[in-house]
Amino acid sequence: MAGTVTLEAIREAAARIQGEVKRTPVMTSRGFNERSGVEAFLKCENLQTSGSFKIRGATNFVRSLTAEQLAKGVVAFSSGNHAQAVATAARKAGAKATVVMPLDAPKAKVEATRDQGATIVQYDRLKDDREAIGRKISEDTGATLIPPYDHPMTVIGQGTCGLELMEEVPDLDAIVVCTGGGGLLSGCATAARGIRSDVRVFGVEPELANDWYLSMQAGKPVAVDPSSTIADGLRTPQPGKVTFPIVQELVEGILLVSEQEIKDTVKYLISRLKIVAEPSGAAAAAAVLYGKLPAGIKRVGITISGGNVDWDLLQKF
Amino acid sequence: MAGTVTLEAIREAAARIQGEVKRTPVMTSRGFNERSGVEAFLKCENLQTSGSFKIRGATNFVRSLTAEQLAKGVVAFSSGNHAQAVATAARKAGAKATVVMPLDAPKAKVEATRDQGATIVQYDRLKDDREAIGRKISEDTGATLIPPYDHPMTVIGQGTCGLELMEEVPDLDAIVVCTGGGGLLSGCATAARGIRSDVRVFGVEPELANDWYLSMQAGKPVAVDPSSTIADGLRTPQPGKVTFPIVQELVEGILLVSEQEIKDTVKYLISRLKIVAEPSGAAAAAAVLYGKLPAGIKRVGITISGGNVDWDLLQKF
Fold it and tell me: Which of A115, A270, A277 has its CB closest to that of B311?
């Protein structure tokens, strides 16, 4: 199950995960269009099973395992959406999941993951190495490690989001996708430009976690400390090894959004579109609302990548 | 354009409003099912154009007018969703709309209505008679008055919501619909039971606005003071003349929900389903979540009737 990230592989993944993953709605809004000056099509992965697009990659990965592999279970490390996604995909496939989460992970996310039947192994974010813990569990039990973004099967699964968007709105000028590790961005870019090579693709990240922006400028992966952004799903320190070359080839540019723009967009989506996006999930919409796209782009597909935000956090916006 | 409320009329309305009104998604949630003990299908009218189902009746009404009538404009009185709906339907049909709103209407709703190009006439809720103001404008200008619920064309339009739900999930055991004036409930009941006479239909209202509950018991419309419920869309003092007999014939019972159950459901839908429902819009879901349905009902269609809630109000939940 090595896999190369191609449109064909993404189409196969779409067939593989059908019925396990929702075909999420694409929303339009006159108010959003008037305010942003573009015609926007919002792909609502916040309404996805497990609350984010991560279920696509996790399901594609799990459904590609052999019966023997499944019997030994899967393991993942994540404090957020990937944890829930792997737990959900494993439960649906009848496999045991172990998820390595930090001791200070949001209680709601720990509970949602446990609620899916996963075993939680907690670690100290300051002292322990979560990757080492994950690898050790994998070595001891034979469980398959499911990487959150830096693996072709994960990227191919996330690409089904872009495939659905292009199927529903074939004549887009551009798609705008948030990027943490780059799984969603590289997958969607492969799908969109595979279908129509003239579609322009943009990544979005917070100004406070601008590793992709710097890496694209430098022509090689550059690391930053992303810990201070509110967009917890985009707090990866640097681009992935699998994802970076794909983004370098297919993505026109990385747009940066401020913390305030992210928060105001979360609020706007709740007030006007009646949907709840987590800060990471609102970043791409923020880039479009706050005019970060080059001029002349009219029809724009935007991923709302997730909706797992704590009520308490919303109260502070 | 008198119109009798029948399944056939609702089917004609569906064709009439197609392209003007969204076919809203039907959401499912494993968490909701586990908590409620039923298999729930949520018809998301909160994601509808203008933020509620009211656009269905308003559009059906406006699109049934002659060119001569349209040229004279339309008028409506409403502090809430019907105002926005009529303003939106009129704008799309190229007709002038005048909306009579109370001086103390939520600023956001007044602005959203004006934003659609409507002329706002404000009145003092304690001194003035809004119906008299609306009728006078109609008499003076020839504008057609569009009633918020108590007219066959309005009811027939709202019925398209039930039609879509039954088309998408044909094998429902029951549908659960909130009721203020009864437009959505009577329309959906006509559609659902017209398609399958064994579908059970339940209305839902707040304990603090239980006019339908009392009216069904009394066998005739009974008035209450509904002003204290948080569900502002359900604050009608008594059932409508057109809607009451339909509900009496087709609806099995009226379920009552507490203020706390409504608020907790709004919070639950935001936290778990990532959708924003206004208190009125969450009432039907609250009835199902809090076990108000008779035992033995398995597959349940639920209308989430609207999402127009102020951010400030949400902060208080």
Answer: A270
CA distance B112 to chain A (A): 10
Residue pair B257/B283 in contact (Cβ under 8 Å)? The answer is yes
State the sign of the Cα–Cα–Cα–Cα dihedral B224, B206, B202, B187: positive
For the entire predicted model, the pTM comes to 0.93
Min Cα distance A110 → chain B (Å) is: 14
| Number of A–B residue contacts, CB under 8 Å | 46
Does A275 contact B275 at a Cβ distance shorter than 8 Å?
yes
Q: Please tell me the distance from the alpha carbon of residue A14 to that of residue A1, in angstroms, as a whole number.
A: 16
**Closest of B53, B33, B37 to residue B45, by C-alpha:** B53
pLDDT at A53: 98
Residues 229-258 of B with CB under 8 A from A: none
The span from the CA of B273 to the CA of A51, in Å, is: 8
CB of A302 within 8 Å of a chain B CB? The answer is no
Amino acid symbol at A252: E
pLDDT average, residue stretch A132-153: 95
Please indicate if any CB of chain A lies within 8 Å of the CB of B117.
Answer: no
Average pLDDT over residues B184-211: 98
- The CA distances from residue A298 to A280, A288, B262, in Å, are 24, 11, 41
- Kindly list the residues from chain B whose CB atom is less than 8 angstroms away from the CB atom of residue A31: 115
Check: CATH 3.40.50.1100 for B55-145?
Answer: yes
Residue in B closest to A278 by C-alpha: B274
Cβ–Cβ contact A73 with B under 8 A = no
Candidate from A30, A51, A271 with C-beta closest to B274: A51
Is B55-145 the same fold as B2-52+151-314? yes
Is A2-52+151-314 a CATH 3.40.50.1100 domain? yes
pLDDT band at A1 (very low <50, low <70, confident <90, very high): low
Do A157 and A60 meet the contact criterion of CB atoms below 8 Å apart?
yes
Strands B39-44, B26-27: pairing kind: antiparallel
Q: What is the least distance, in Å, from the CA of A235 to any CA of chain B?
A: 22
Q: Which residues contact B296 (CB under 8 A, 6 or more apart)?
A: none
> What integer is the mean pLDDT of B41-50?
97
Instruction: Count Cβ atoms within 10 A of the Cβ of residue A135 and give its class: 0-12 exposed, 13-18 middle, 19 or more buried.
Output: middle
Q: Find, in chain A, the residue whose alpha carbon is nearest to that of B304.
A: A274
The ipTM assigned to this model is 0.90
Boundaries of every domain in chain B: 2-52+151-314, 55-145
Q: Which of B62, B68, B67 lies closest to B89 in space, CA to CA? A: B62
Residue A127 known to be catalytic: no
Which amino acid is it at A174? A
* Inter-chain residue contact A270 with B314, CB threshold 8 Å: yes
pLDDT in tens, A223-257: 999 889 999 889 989 999 999 999 999 999 999 99
Q: Which residues on adjacent β-strands are paired with residue B255?
A: B204
